[in-house]
Amino acid sequence: MGKVPSGILQEARRQHIPVILLAGAIEDAGILNAAGFRGVFSITPSPASLEQAMQPEFAQENIRRTVEQICRIFF
């Protein structure tokens, strides 16, 4: 797990705030759940080249789509 997600999770724990992780690719969601993330979601729905995944429009659409699906769980 990277420094940023780890730091966010640590601070959220102190404040008793659940955290959902969005990532480009996820190797082992179980490890991330065990670390304390309430949910772990990949924003990349299908295989993509690194070049494609780094394009802002591609990333924004994938984030939008993933967040929409997460919101459907709660609302």
Question: Key terms for this structure?
Answer:
mainly alpha; globular; 56% helix; two-stranded parallel sheet; Glycerate_kinase_RE-like; glycerate kinase activity; single chain
Describe this structure as you would to a colleague.
With about 80 residues, the chain is mostly helical. The protein has one domain (about 5-75). The protein is built from 4 helices and 2 strands, in the order H-E-H-E-H-H. The chain has a two-stranded parallel sheet. The longest helix has 19 residues, at about 55-75. The relative contact order is 0.14. The model has no long low-confidence stretch (mean pLDDT about 90). It comes from Bacteroides uniformis. One of its GO terms (biological process) is organic acid phosphorylation.
Fold topology:
Blueprint: H1 3-14, E1 20-23, H2 29-35, E2 39-42, H3 50-53, H4 56-74
Parallel strand pairs: 1-2
Order of secondary-structure elements: HEHEHH
Beta-strand share of residues: 5-15%
Counted by DSSP, the helix tally is: 4
Decide which structural class fits the backbone.
Answer: mainly alpha
Number of domains: 1
Percent of residues in helices: 55-70%
